[in-house]
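Late entry, evening session. Most of the bench is empty. Finally got around to the prediction I had been postponing all week. Sequence below, unchanged from the version circulated by S.P.
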Amino acid sequence: MIGEKIKLYRNRMGLSLTELAKRAGVAKSYLSSIERNQQANPSIHFLEKIAAELKVPMEVFILEEEMGEPVLDTEWKELIEEAMRSGITKEDFADYLEFKKWQLKSNKDE
């Protein structure tokens, strides 16, 4: 549900309902009703305001719910884009992941 995701990201940011509503310029009562799933279809404009304050792409609220797949947050996207600009290939990244898995396993075995 969209409201649950908004509440999750709001709590991650350490914001109260009142703080988020004030920063986003939305009514606290409406935000509360969204978070409690009493209102199920907030407008795109509302979601844009909330997403901007929570520093996440608006799609996080929509796509995760519709597709059931996680959406990368902004930091992950920036890291991936930086890696791509640096010339790191998918194969390089896959090799690095395998190395890190091996390293973690080796540390656990010690």
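Two things to note before I forget:
The chain has seven helices and no strands.
The chain has a mean pLDDT of 85.
Will write this up properly tomorrow.
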